[in-house]
Design a protein that fits this description.
120 residues, alpha+beta, six-stranded antiparallel beta sheet, two-stranded antiparallel sheet, 8 strands
Length: 120
């Protein structure tokens, strides 16, 4: 599991908050996390009702999601709970589910819309 995935999991779940100062803690905790699907070599990124669940939709490179929380499965894969902001079509946009986080590149924004963190 990459260092970025672990950090994303800790921040999204609130577990990493205690390592920040009080001001940073509030900024990260209240952040809006917007992610772009990237790194797919073929096919689509499966959108699932729960981690490792049966896919109900697919996302393409360049699709945009809002991430809400992260969780680990029994194989130590990080899954992000997301809402599709810009999907491959109107039937997928707005859907909520879980995706494998290794295919997301995310940016964290504060309440004023200022960028406070970005995946490398």
């Amino acid at each position: 599991m990459s260092r970025t995935s672990i950090l994303r999991l800790l921040i999204l779940t609130g577990l990493g908050i205690s390592v920040f100062s009080n001001q940073a803690r509030a900024d990260i905790y209240d952040a809006t996390v917007i992610c772009t699907v990237r790194g797919l070599q073929q096919g689509q990124l499966a959108l699932r009702p729960q981690p490792n669940g049966r896919p109900f939709a697919g996302l393409n490179n360049g699709n945009v999601v809002q991430a809400f929380a992260g969780t680990l499965d029994e194989n130590n894969l990080v899954w992000d709970e997301v809402k599709v902001i810009k999907g491959p079509n109107s039937q997928v946009t707005g859907r909520v589910g879980y995706v494998n986080s290794k295919y997301l590149s995310c940016k964290w924004y504060d309440e004023q819309g200022n960028l406070i963190k970005e995946d490398p």
